[in-house]
Amino acid sequence: MASVEECRAALAKLVAQFDEIDEEDRAKHVVERTVSCRVSDLDVTFYGRLHHGGWTRSRRSRRRTASPPT
Question: So where are the chain's domains?
Answer without folding.
Answer: 4-62
